[in-house]
């Protein structure tokens, strides 16, 4: 019965991770509500195992992005000429632009990793981040209402825009702010369409998240034991499947519904956390 419950917990957490990692709603905030309040995986397992599990399921979400953007990544690496069977006419997103976008958050994350882990992962700071991120998203949407986007597709992004979006990504080092929330908002404020900003966000997320996840796994490799393996595998598969569904749905909707509905949802999540934990 205990093993079965462990698998159920793993699947639930994998679903939460998959649905929220790349939507601008904060996967951290949802993990606090679902795991810390309801499932309490750190009581079910060794806390180090529970934390390692959260890294493993994040890799499931990353794999979903790689598959959905496979042609794009192959094109960036020079291994494929077209995207989804269509040749790009005119400018196209380059690997250099992705690296430019990655550098600010990668450098700051490396320099301040210990501070972030020790000082910013509290429930109170996550609530502030949820609300602050919601405000940024609302500002981005209202700004674009007054000025139409000048960049309709990810291939039209300039080096300057890539760097500035990378600076916005630095805000996501604040747990609860949301990587996609900060970068999509930043992109929209810089003149990108919501879809172009979302595409660039997901492409940038893969190397930086994969790098951080693999480093974390190396530090905690000892906790991936035979006994814990079914727990990890179940969560990884659930995160992968639901990330595929979530990202496809999100990309189809983002240009239509924009960011305000997600901002309102973030505020609701923040209120729930405040009611329950304070």
UniProtKB/TrEMBL annotation:
Keyword Cell wall biogenesis/degradation annotated: yes
Molecular functions (GO terms): undecaprenyl-diphosphatase activity
UniProt entry tagged with the keyword Transferase: no
PANTHER family recorded: UNDECAPRENYL-DIPHOSPHATASE
Topology of the protein relative to the lipid bilayer: Multi-pass membrane protein
Primary enzyme class: hydrolase
Biological source species: Niallia taxi
Cellular component GO terms, alphabetical: plasma membrane
Protein family membership: Belongs to the UppP family.
Keywords for this protein: Antibiotic resistance, Cell membrane, Cell shape, Cell wall biogenesis/degradation, Hydrolase, Membrane, Peptidoglycan synthesis, Transmembrane, Transmembrane helix
Cellular localisation: Cell membrane
Segments crossing the lipid bilayer: 7-33, 53-73, 93-112, 118-140, 161-177, 197-217, 229-251, 257-277
General function of this protein: Catalyzes the dephosphorylation of undecaprenyl diphosphate (UPP). Confers resistance to bacitracin.
Pfam families (alphabetical): BacA (PF02673)
Family annotation (InterPro entries): UppP
Catalytic reactions on record: di-trans,octa-cis-undecaprenyl diphosphate + H2O = di-trans,octa-cis-undecaprenyl phosphate + phosphate + H(+)
Enzyme Commission number(s) from the entry: 3.6.1.27
Domain of life: Bacteria
GO biological process: cell wall organization; peptidoglycan biosynthetic process; regulation of cell shape; response to antibiotic
Miscellaneous: Bacitracin is thought to be involved in the inhibition of peptidoglycan synthesis by sequestering undecaprenyl diphosphate, thereby reducing the pool of lipid carrier available.
Name of this chain's protein: Undecaprenyl-diphosphatase
């Amino acid at each position: 019965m205990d093993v079965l419950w462990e698998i159920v917990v793993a699947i639930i957490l994998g679903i939460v991770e998959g649905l929220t990692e790349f939507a601008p709603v904060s996967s951290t905030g949802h993990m606090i509500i679902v795991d810390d309040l309801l499932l309490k995986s750190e009581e079910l397992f060794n806390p180090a195992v529970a934390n390692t599990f959260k890294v493993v399921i994040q890799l499931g979400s990353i794999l979903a992005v790689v598959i959905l953007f496979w042609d794009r990544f192959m094109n960036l690496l020079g291994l494929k000429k077209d995207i989804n069977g269509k040749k790009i006419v005119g400018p196209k997103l380059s690997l250099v632009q992705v690296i430019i976008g990655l550098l600010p958050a990668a450098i700051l994350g490396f320099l301040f990793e210990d501070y972030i882990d020790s000082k910013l992962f509290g429930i109170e700071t996550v609530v502030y981040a949820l609300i602050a991120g919601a405000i940024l998203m609302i500002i981005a949407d209202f700004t674009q209402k007054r000025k139409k986007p000048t960049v309709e597709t990810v291939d039209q992004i300039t080096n300057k825009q890539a760097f500035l979006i990378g600076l916005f990504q630095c805000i996501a080092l604040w747990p609860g702010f949301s990587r996609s929330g900060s970068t999509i908002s930043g992109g929209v404020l810089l003149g990108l369409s919501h879809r172009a900003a979302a595409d660039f966000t997901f492409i940038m997320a893969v190397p930086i998240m994969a790098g951080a996840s693999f480093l974390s796994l190396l530090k905690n490799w000892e906790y991936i034991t035979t006994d814990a393996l079914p727990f990890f595998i179940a969560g990884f598969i659930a995160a992968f499947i639901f990330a595929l569904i979530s990202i496809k749905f999100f990309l189809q909707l983002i240009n239509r519904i924009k960011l305000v509905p997600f901002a309102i949802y973030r505020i609701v999540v923040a209120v729930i956390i405040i009611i329950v934990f304070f």
